[in-house]
Amino acid sequence: MKSTTILSVLLIVTLSVACFHPTAAAQSDEAVIKQGQNLNSEGKQDEALKLYGQVLQKSPNSYQAHLDSGIALDLKGEYPVAREHLKKAIDLAPPDQKNRALRVMAFSYAFESNSREAEKYEKQAFDAMLAKSDFDGAAGVANELARIDLESGDIDGAAKWYKVGSDAAMHKTDMKEADTNLWAFRYAHAQARIAARRGQRDEAQKQIAAAKAALDKAQNPDQAIFVPYLTGYVAFYGGDYKTAITDLSKANQEDPFILVLLAQSYEKSGDAKHAREYYEKVMANNSHGPTNAFARPIARKKLES
């Protein structure tokens, strides 16, 4: 009997230690956060936020819980509250996650077309990558900022940062010819969109031709999906909504920005039914990045009105 009692006490003590062990607690937080992420991807931001809140009650310095709270709040359109969490996430971020946290904050400002504030965070990530000679990464961040500028209406800022991105990419010492042509495609792609926004139709067409030629040389079929996006974009800003619909319909239908351009093209063509359908598709997308930051606020406003 004594032996049984002693074993029972030891078992209880062992279980108690396991429950309060930091590793066990961390695994528990991770599981709850993962559940929240799944809910957020399903559009259930309020439910996700409740789970993140539970984690933060136990672990107020959880980088991931703060980051994911900011993401969910951005998708709800609650940007100032989102940024409170994102600021904490930046402060708490482990070194290998710092640039991600900075970029997520930039995306938060992109939801409000505030490219000036977005630049403060994107530039930190850009400088950090450049300091480590991560030229591909730095070029990608520069292009990301350029796109935020362009869709926020700062066309000159976009031109500047697309050039910075292209120059950064060319610093890579082991650049292959196919990579050089790929970056030439990306730069001409950007120049065509910039020209379209400036109302320079001939220049836009010239840059489309340059982009296609560079892509042919790059021999990268994975990038072909970006051509109808480009021609559709240029058509949209040129007022040719019929061509915009035709071309954008051949582009990536998982991209919320392409979907919102389609919605606007249908709307401007007088097709309210299809416009609403595509605005609803935008709102069904729960990704957190520049493309949804450009698209979601427009779709929300249209559907609410």
Mind sketching the topology for me?
Layout: H1 2-20, H2 22-41, H3 45-58, H4 63-76, H5 79-92, H6 98-110, H7 115-131, H8 135-151, H9 155-169, H10 177-197, H11 201-218, H12 226-237, H13 241-248, H14 256-268, H15 272-283, H16 290-304
Describe the structure.
The protein folds into four domains: 16-92, Alpha Horseshoe (Serine Threonine Protein Phosphatase 5, Tetratricopeptide repeat); 98-173, Serine Threonine Protein Phosphatase 5, Tetratricopeptide repeat, CATH 1.25.40; 176-238, no CATH class; 252-305, no CATH class. 79% of the residues lie in helices and 0% in strands. The chain is built from 16 helices and no strands. It has helices at 2-20, 22-41, 45-58, 63-76, 79-92, 98-110, 115-131, 135-151, 155-169, 177-197, 201-218, 226-237, 241-248, 256-268, 272-283, 290-304.
* Share in helix: over 70%
CATH architectural designation of the largest domain: Alpha Horseshoe
CA(first)-CA(last) distance = 75 Å
Shape: globular
What fold name goes in the CATH topology slot of the largest domain? Serine Threonine Protein Phosphatase 5, Tetratricopeptide repeat
| Strand-pairing-aware structural class | mainly alpha
Name the helix and strand elements from N-terminus to C-terminus, one letter apiece.
Answer: HHHHHHHHHHHHHHHH
> How many discrete domains?
4
Structure summary, number of beta strands: 0
Care to give the gist of this entry?
The protein has 16 helices and no strands. By secondary structure, it is mainly α. Helix 4 runs parallel beside helix 6, helix 14 runs antiparallel to helix 15 and helix 15 crosses helix 16.
